[in-house]
């Protein structure tokens, strides 16, 4: 029996890590489940790539490494399973069987449909970042190229590693070429929309949360990985600008708005639908996912209007974390993680990082100021998430 409990806790730990939860939350969940199963002295130590678990005392330590990331429908099953274990509805053996079944779950949607979900995401992000018709059309066309690369990368691991650079380069070439032909203005924000799926926004916020919670090794590792992703995407865009012949002045971080507030609302809805399909969110989660996205976007916009990007990032983080926690507590509410993470695909961390790095390469003085603003906004969002999560947890 102790061996089965330890094996279950290891499987549960790597499943929650593969679902994207911070390491300190995974460690706490593993210890709580262990106590519910009759092992109150469980000790655990998690990293982004694996977890160590011991039942305490003189018991041996087990280790399991994280496999492929879980889809959102799988993450929902893991969270429901954790709740069942804590409530005593499952024993260790039944829980272990269920966890393995979750890992083996086939995708609900065809791979080609999942890739094509990048199109509404790109159009939605374009309507938020650069609300013009030309921007939305160019971003959608570029997203079709990125979707093709995503499908091809499934067949070759080397292409999967190079996907950030290749996708940014391909999307950048198409968008910048449209700008050279005077089909759109201020193309940098438009070029970002098709590669939004590759932005490490949630990764960066999770890393900041871990650092703030004292999990410095895990947090620093996530932040470093997120920074590398940002640099790869920025390099692809900068290389595309050089190839097409876009000058530094045309790479300025300029926002145009021809369509008004309704375009932003439509953009948020498109992002929600695209994320729902692309990440295979659990059935019934779409309305709640859209609610969290809309609340987060509205609160962040109000905060930005009142006090700039830093205040907007902070209150947006609070709103996203708190709303997700409240929805999660409703009867049959979706998992908090599945409706919380998509909000950060739309917000500042990844977007400002790519914009600032690309602008820094093109125009050093302006880019440096944008980098400073990006760092401040990322810290504000991370603190907002911590506050929102703490308030949500305190109301349980």
From TrEMBL:
Q: Which GO terms describe its molecular function?
A: transmembrane transporter activity
Q: Does the keyword Transmembrane apply?
A: yes
Enumerate the transmembrane spans.
Answer: 135-152, 159-179, 191-211, 223-247, 259-279, 286-303, 309-327, 339-362, 368-393
Which InterPro entries does the UniProt entry name for this protein?
A: ThrE-like_N, ThrE/Ser_Exporter
Give the protein family. Belongs to the ThrE exporter (TC 2.A.79) family.
**Organism lineage:** Bacteria, Bacillati, Actinomycetota, Thermoleophilia, Solirubrobacterales
Which stretches make up the Threonine/serine exporter-like N-terminal domain? 8-243
Question: Which keywords does the record carry?
Answer: Membrane, Transmembrane, Transmembrane helix
Please name the PANTHER family in this protein's record. PHEROMONE-REGULATED MEMBRANE PROTEIN 10
Q: What organism is the protein native to?
A: Solirubrobacter pauli
From the Swiss-Prot or TrEMBL record, give the protein name.
Answer: Uncharacterized membrane protein YjjP (DUF1212 family)
């Amino acid at each position: 029996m102790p061996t089965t409990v330890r094996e279950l806790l290891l499987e549960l730990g790597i499943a929650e890590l593969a679902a994207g939860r911070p390491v300190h939350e995974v460690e706490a969940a593993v210890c709580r489940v262990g106590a519910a199963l009759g092992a109150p002295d469980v000790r655990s130590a998690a990293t982004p790539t694996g977890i160590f678990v011991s039942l305490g005392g003189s018991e041996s330590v087990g280790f399991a490494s994280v496999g492929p990331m879980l889809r959102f429908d799988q993450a929902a099953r893991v969270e429901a399973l954790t709740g069942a274990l804590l409530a005593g509805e499952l024993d260790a053996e039944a829980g272990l069987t269920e966890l393995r079944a979750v890992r083996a779950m086939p995708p609900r949607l065809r791979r080609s449909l999942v890739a094509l979900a990048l199109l509404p995401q790109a159009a939605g992000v374009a309507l938020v970042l650069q609300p013009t018709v030309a921007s939305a059309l160019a971003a959608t066309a570029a997203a079709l190229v990125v979707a093709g690369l995503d499908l091809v990368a499934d067949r070759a691991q080397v292409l999967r590693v190079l996907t950030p650079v290749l996708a940014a380069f391909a999307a950048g070439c198409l968008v910048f070429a449209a700008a050279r032909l005077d089909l759109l203005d201020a193309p940098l924000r438009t070029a970002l929309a098709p590669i939004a799926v590759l932005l490490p926004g949630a990764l960066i916020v999770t890393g900041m949360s871990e650092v703030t919670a004292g999990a410095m090794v895990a947090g620093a590792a996530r932040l470093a990985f997120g920074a590398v992703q940002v640099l790869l995407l920025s390099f692809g865009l900068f290389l595309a600008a050089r190839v097409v012949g876009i000058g530094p002045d045309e790479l300025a971080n300029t926002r145009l708005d021809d369509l008004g507030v309704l375009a932003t609302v439509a953009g948020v809805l498109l992002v929600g639908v695209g994320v729902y399909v692309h990440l295979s969110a659990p059935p019934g989660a779409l309305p709640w996912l859209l609610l969290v996205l809309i609340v987060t976007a509205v609160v962040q916009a109000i905060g930005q209007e009142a006090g700039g990007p830093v205040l907007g990032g902070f209150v947006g983080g609070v709103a996203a974390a708190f709303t997700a926690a409240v929805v999660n507590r409703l009867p049959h509410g979706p998992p908090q993680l599945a409706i919380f993470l998509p909000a950060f695909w739309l917000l500042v961390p990844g977007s400002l990082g790519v914009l600032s790095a690309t602008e820094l390469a093109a125009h050093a003085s302006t880019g440096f100021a944008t980098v400073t603003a990006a760092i401040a906004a990322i810290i504000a969002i991370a603190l907002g998430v911590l506050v929102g999560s703490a308030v949500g947890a305190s109301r349980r």
